[in-house]
Structures are given as C-alpha cells and as structure tokens.
Amino acid sequence: QVHLVESGGGLVQAGGSLRVSCSASGRPLSNYAMGWFRQTPGKEREFVGGISRSGGSTYYPDSVKGRFTVSRDNAKNTVYLQMNNLKPEDTATYYCAAAETSSYWYAARQHREYDYWGQGTQVTVSS
Length: 127
Known about the structure:
- The chain starts with a strand and ends with a strand.
- It is an all-beta fold.
- The protein has strands spanning 3-7, 10-13, 18-25, 32-39, 46-51, 58-59, 68-73, 78-83, 92-100, 116-117, 121-126.
C-alpha cells in the first residue's frame, strides 16, 4: 500500500502560479499511474490531470488544459501539479491519487481507476 501526502497549497492571486506536490511512501511511486483531482464543498471530485507510470503520457480535461501540468520524479517518489494562470474558480482542495496499473503508458482519468488517495491540500485563488 502507498501513502500519499500533498503539500504546497496556499493563497494566490488570480493570474498567478502555484505548484503543489505529492510525496509517496510505502511503495515505489513508479508502480502507479498518478492523478490530481480537486473538490469544493457540495460538488463531486473533479479530475484535473493524470500521468502514466513512465511519465511519458499525460491527460488533462479541457477545463485546465494549457494551464495545468502534471509531472513526476520517480527517483524522489514525488508527483507535481504546476498550475498557471490561476482563476478564482480553481479554488478547491486538491488531492493526489495513485492507480495500480501494469501499463507504463496509460494515464488514468476516472475516479474509479484510482486506488489510493492523499488527504488534500487547499488552494485558494483570490480575485
């Protein structure tokens, strides 16, 4: 079992940038496809980006494409979410998640594909 801990959330002005990190322990991060989701109170958890085990494939929904970038450093057991040109509607709690998969190239994108979740980090974008 892998344990995930997010960090790096905070308050940023609209138009600014922020990078959040997800550190893994327990098992090597390279065993998992990784993803980022976000959630606001009363709403379903929303997928914002995924990356394959190898790091060679990524996937983003249209809502963040071109602004968000997921990357990983398997040697450091860490996944990153770089967020640029942030908007007030990006305000949410951001969660990283790990998906067990045998594929080195598949970037999981559905909530049900993910097996392990972090506790979340709050990102607030002020207007």
